[in-house]
Amino acid sequence: MFTRKKTVWLYLMPGFLGLLAFYFVPFFWGVWFSLTDGTIDNKFVGFQNYLNVWRNEIFQLGLKNTLELSLLCAPVIFVLAFLLASLMRKRVAGDGFFRNALLMPYLMPSSAMLIIWLLMFDYGGVINRMVTAMGFERVFWLEGGALRVPIVLLYIWKNLGFSVVIFTAALQAVPESLYEYAALEGAGFFRRQFSITLPQVLPTAFLVFVLAMVNAFKIFKEVYVIGGAYPEESVYTLQHYMNNKFAKLDYQDVTTAAYSFAVIVIVLFLLMYRAKSVRQGENAA
Amino acid sequence: MTNIKPNQNLPRGEVIPPVIGPDPSLAYGFTPEPVRAPTKPHLFISLPKRRGGKWLRSLRRDVRALRQSRPLTIAMFCLIAVLMLTPIVFTFLYSFFPKGEITTYLGLRNRYDATKWLDVLYAPSVVSLRQYYTILIEEPEYLKLFVNSAMYGGAILLGQTLIIPMTAYALSRFAFRGRDTLFFLVLMLMLLPFQVTMAPSVMTLRALGLLNTPWAIILPSIFSPFYIFLLRQFMVGIPGEIIEAGQMDGTGTLRTFAHVVLPVCRPILGAAAALSFADCWNLVEQPLVYLTDSRLQPLSVMFNKMNEEGQAVAFAGAALYLLPMLLIYIYFQDDILLGVQLSELK
To answer: Do residue B124 and residue B251 come from a single domain?
Structure first.
């Protein structure tokens, strides 16, 4: 650690100026935006914008959809990632290939996958073949509420590998000897999972969940790719609301909606940060 | 162990008499095994080092693992791997179909007729490069967008290489006032969706005269908080001894940066480069908002709009679009794995 070195400014300045110009200034400017009325005098109106936006039905719809989509994506990714990671804890043949196959979609651009997705979820497509093979009626995947399924699946396809890799690393860090002791003491498989695996990886598990959640809040590309700027009501996210308000040059509403949402994300983050501190407290003790 | 010279004075296989002195079990809490002289005459020939590159060794390891593995797990892994790769494989497969076949096939979609199915095609009637010929040579629009995307990606990557390691170095290896606040802000910005600062960003970019120029995309992405965070996390983890050793020898901060920190960071730099390029390749939100001129748009935004007209070449377009990412993934796969593992908040 270098202390009292003047050269730090040399390293910091370019990055800091950029962050200042393109991130910090807009961020705090936006706070000001959301508290003024946007007319020529730009009067300070306090929380009036917030009250207006929260009463807006389209905002409510967007917020509801965003939360619902995240609550759909995050648990599914979390559970799948945990199951796959616990299977991958011990090396099996070809697990390197498997891990790569899981992680590869993370780099693939969503828009290039659209065409194959439309084929799969067509009324006569593969997915409906499976559905009928299981004895159900065919589903109109690309309309109404069912449209959420292809979007969520595209999202999971892209992001699952990310969580699996983080989880696997955490699980592999659990000392093998703990399991051996437990087995000697006569603990069965489930007992071992609950009494050793779970407490050991709980902090990581929480982080994976919150990261999955925060990233699921950013689900927009997938919806935009499949549904466009004005998609079905069932997948109209908060980001659509903001983008469309933006297109109408209604900057006050955009920033107000944005900061309402930011508060949710930051509260989640602070929870995560607290969990992190708790973990560090445990480690120190 | 194998190089212990056998004690020539002892008859083979005979128990060595216990050491005279206090009972060793009192000292160590266990009774040591009596040491036996080796039963076989010792070989003092060192075995040749195992040959074979990384690939062969990993294959050997896989074969060994296969012997003692759980076939059910492997079967499941295979199934999931196939599911994950199917969309990619079929995109490439369909890109070699003749244009007419693809048009007919795509025309069969959206027949809401419960008696008919959309067949899955496995092989083209003729393997054809016609789709590629069209998008690369006949209609250069796709190529223009592709070049746009590559240009954005290249420029952003170049800028990031210059800026981000330096910033991360300052944030990780220096103590200065306000460092933690600055890092907290970076962290928070990393978590927020792009739309949060969208409107004021546009105002800022307009004030700087950058709106609707390529710089509107390039400049903000160069200072991406996520990659500052990722590199900073890695640099914090570099043991202080390495750097202090340099300081003893009188290296300054720049020498430390160039000759100690950067070489240690090589894997994470690879990971960051690959992930960042993937981000640029997949940019949707920023171009939609910052660029009104459709000639400046990257492929990620225009790709599907283009498809509406030229469905016949959609698969070749998608395949070419995936190809750079596929190659980057294959080249950087170990680094990417590491980068993802590190992106956990520590």
So the answer is: no
Q: What is the CATH number of the domain that holds B188?
A: 1.10.3720.10
Per-residue model confidence as pLDDT tens digits over B133-157 = 888 888 888 888 899 999 999 999 9
Asked, for residue A1, whether it belongs to a domain, the answer is no
**Which residues in chain B have their CB less than 8 angstroms from residue A95's CB?**
65, 77
Asked if A74 and A216 touch (Cβ cutoff 8 Å), the reply is: yes
pLDDT grade, residue B168 (50/70/90)?
very high
A258 touches chain B (CB under 8 A): yes
Instruction: State how many domains chain B has.
Output: 2
Q: Which structural domain range is residue A49 located in?
A: 43-108+160-284
Interface of B with A in 129-148 (CB under 8 A): none
Query: B233 is in which domain, residue-wise?
Result: 141-342
Give the CA distances from residue A71 to residues A145, A217, A280, B281, in Å, rounded to whole numbers and listed in that order.
Answer: 15, 9, 28, 27
Q: Is residue B265 part of a domain?
A: yes
The CATH number of the domain holding residue A216 is: 1.10.3720.10
B116: pLDDT strictly greater than 90: no
pLDDT for residue B228: 92
Contacts of B81 in chain A (CB under 8 A): 97-98, 101-102
Tokens of B57: 């060794």
The partner residue sitting opposite B223, judged by closest CB among A11, A22, A87, is A22
Q: Is B209 left (phi over 0), alpha (psi -120 to 50) or beta?
A: left
Nearest to B322 among A25, A108, A160 (CB): A108
B72, B98, B131 - which closes a domain: B131
pLDDT at residue number B153:
93
CA atoms within 13 A on the CB side of A130: 6
Q: Are residues B220 and B109 in the same domain?
A: no
d(CA A223, CA A150): 9
Residue numbers in A near B333 (CB within 8 A): 100, 103
Q: Does B37 touch chain A (CB under 8 A)?
A: no
Confidence (pLDDT) at B69: 59
